Structure formats: structure tokens, C-alpha cells
Amino acid sequence: MTGSERRQELLQLLSGTQTPISGASLAKHFTVSRQVIVQDMALLRAQGHEVLSTNRGYLIQAPLRVSRIFKVFHTSEQIVDELCTIVDLGGTVEDVFVHHKIYGQLQAPLHISSRRDVQIFLEELNSGKSTPLKDVTSDYHYHTVSADSGETLDLIGQELGKKGYLCQ
Q: Of all helices (H) and strands (E), which one includes residue 147?
């Protein structure tokens, strides 16, 4: 097993438990030294994983945000309403992407989390430098939306559905 494979399995083990796993038991499980486990944890942290070291072992900190992909459809005039609906309910529009029949998936980061962000985005669109990505796929597009809970994402989905933006 390579170091990369071991670290992937470490992430799976730690993600699948609510209780800390000691470095010694991880070392035994992987037949490596405890020092190798310590180094693996440092590498995982460097990659951005929230690995916590406690006096009883290692844990992966639960993500503070959850995300969901919404497939939506609307006109250019409805962009502001769609984005404000999401941010007003506590969501962040992480990106926009489309599935183009020739070019495949085209994606752009947005990170819109407030009405001010919506306004800035709209000003950039209105500058005439570019058009919305949804225009290349007849107004169909996707957003990755993050929020503090699944319940918040459910509310966002319900509201987008009520407004006729959500595709089934």
C-alpha cells in the first residue's frame, strides 16, 4: 500500500467514526510506526483536511457546511431573484456549471453569499464583458450551494421550486 492509499484509507476510517482512534491502533492497523501515522496526519492537514488530535486519538472534524447541487432554469431577468432567494435563506452559491454537448462540463466559481455579492455579480454581467454561462445551454444550468445544514438546503430547494426555477 502506498502512502497516498494509506492516507485515503485513514480519511475513510476517521470519517466513519464519532470516537477518536489512537495513533497506536492506526499504526497497528496499517503495520507502520506511530511516527508514520503522525506524518500522515500532518500531510492530511496540509491538504486541507480538518484532522483533530486529541489525547484519546485522531478525529475528523465534521464539516461546518454541507452542499447540494441544484439544477435550475430561468431567464436572465430572474438571475437576481434566484441568487437572492438562495442567499436570503442562508446559502452560498459556490459555482455555476453547465453540461455542453460539445465542450462537456463548463464551470465557474461564484462564491456568492450575500445580496452585496449578488449586486457585484450583476454589475459585472451588465458591464457587457460577458454573458451568463446558462446562455450556452438554453437557460439550463447547475449551482453548487452550501449552507450550515441539510435543512437549510431543503428550504432553499423548496423555495426555488415554488418560484419555478428548480428542474426535477
A: strand 140-147
Q: Of 47, 45, 46, which is closest to residue 60 (Cα–Cα)?
A: 45
Cβ–Cβ < 8 Å for 98, 140: yes
For residue 113, which of 144, 141, 139 has the smallest C-alpha distance?
A: 144
Q: What is the CA radius of gyration of the chain?
A: 21
Regarding pTM above 0.85, the answer is no
Q: Is 21 in contact with 51 (CB distance < 8 Å)? A: no
Contacts of 161 (CB under 8 A, 6+ apart): none
- Three cell numbers written together for 96: 455555476
Terminus-to-terminus CA distance in the chain, angstroms? 42
Model confidence pLDDT, tens digit, residues 56-88: 999 987 666 789 999 999 999 999 999 999 999
